[in-house]
Amino acid sequence: MTPRERARARTEQEIRAIAWRHLEEQGAAALSLRAIAREVGIVSSAIYRYVPSREELLTDLIIEGYTDLADAAGAAEAGLLAQDGEASPRLRWLAVVRAVAAWARRRPAAWTLLYGSPVPGYAAPPERTTDAGTRVMIRLAHIVADASVRGEQRTVLTAGIEVPPGLASGLREASRAVGLDGDERVVADTVLGWTLVIALITSELFEQFGRETFADTGAWLDFALETTATAAGL
């Protein structure tokens, strides 16, 4: 890497670091390239040499956030398996979702960007964000599929509910797309469990139950996350 390339990389890294801090302090809707440029120490027009637009910066931050979250989830499962190579699918699921919750607590602004209210005037481009954004759910789907193969997975929430043919076809296609055997129930149970994880974490971060509802909201979330494994049939 040439000195010029190193200098550019440092500036791009500084821009992202400042952008994350502004998200924490002001929220995504208030993110301003002009304000970031001022803090970097360059004229506002010069920032476009590094970031084509505010929308492009938001997309980069979303991809970075999803990637960091997925890496944390993967490290948690790998750490569990390093300690116990025979850890059950339920324990693997819980290791992943607890790591997700811990990440959200450490980085509430990033969680809000990924799973909170949409940013006015911005739509994340799926062709750039889907791969990173589905990594955690795909990891969970493989855990549920492993349990199914071992005969340890039983459908709970969708038991007795007929999956409409069109939906079943889409679920089977999604299953095959991530390297599974096309079992629509595995995908349905995974998505339901993961949706519950997102809702539980978001309700804690946004204090949706109020500060006085639970004496220890952290204990409530830890308890409630156990139910997500049950929802996934584990």
Give the ordered list of helices and strands: HHHHHHHHHH
| Nearest-integer average pLDDT | 89
CATH superfamily of the largest domain: Tetracycline Repressor, domain 2
- Tally the structural domains: 2
Distance between the termini: 49 Å
Radius of gyration: 20 Å
Give the structural class: mainly alpha
What's the main sheet like? none
Overview of this protein structure:
This protein is mostly helical and 234 residues long. It has two domains: 52 residues, Arc Repressor Mutant, subunit A; 168 residues, Tetracycline Repressor, domain 2, CATH 1.10.357.10. It contains ten helices and no strands. Helix 4 packs antiparallel against helix 7, helix 4 packs parallel to helix 9 and helix 9 runs antiparallel to helix 10. The longest helix has 30 residues. The N and C termini lie far apart (49 Å). The mean pLDDT is 89.
Please outline the helices and strands.
Layout: H1 3-26, H2 33-40, H3 54-83, H4 89-106, H5 108-115, H6 126-133, H7 135-149, H8 165-177, H9 184-205, H10 217-231
Concise overview:
The protein has helices spanning 3-26, 33-40, 54-83, 89-106, 108-115, 126-133, 135-149, 165-177, 184-205, 217-231.
Which key features would you list for this structure?
Arc Repressor Mutant, subunit A; Tetracycline Repressor, domain 2; 2 domains; 10 helices; 69% helix
